[in-house]
Specification:
2 domains; globular; alpha+beta
Length: 133
């Protein structure tokens, strides 16, 4: 379903909510890459060129992301990150946490850093490589 020919009745706008804004810049690059990936999917599905924002709850401010002028740079960075992710999946390794990285707000933190060892991402990846369910 494309809304591109809907006579201007619709406008797709992505707003990603984040709890805290960075102290020294307008937005985190990791947040922007996440929203860029969402934009690519939304543009494909609805046949549009949507706008994208990050809303930081602590400052109650919405930051417009400049994908229209920096599309090529974000596209290149996303492709680079996806290649690295594929390499990690193929190797079965989970990379170490970077210094200062905070995973408490991540929806996958319990998979990467389980409290009990009954289930974890590395074991799941290894079982997939071995053809187990």
């Amino acid at each position: 379903m494309s809304i591109a020919n809907a006579d201007g009745r619709f406008r797709v706008c992505i707003v990603e909510y984040k709890p805290r804004s960075p102290k020294d810049k307008a937005f985190n690059e990791t947040d922007a890459i996440q929203v860029f990936a969402q934009k690519i999917c939304a543009d494909y599905v609805w046949g549009t060129d949507c706008e994208a924002y990050i809303y930081y709850c602590d400052t109650k401010k919405r930051v417009k992301l400049t994908f229209d002028t920096e599309y090529e740079a974000y596209d290149s960075k996303l492709k680079e990150l996806l290649c690295k992710m594929r390499e990690l999946l193929e190797s079965g390794e989970i990379p170490p946490r970077k210094k200062g990285q905070k995973c408490s707000g991540c929806s996958m933190a319990d998979l990467c850093f389980p409290k009990d060892c009954t289930y974890n991402v590395k074991r799941m990846i290894m079982s997939m490589k071995e053809g187990q369910p």
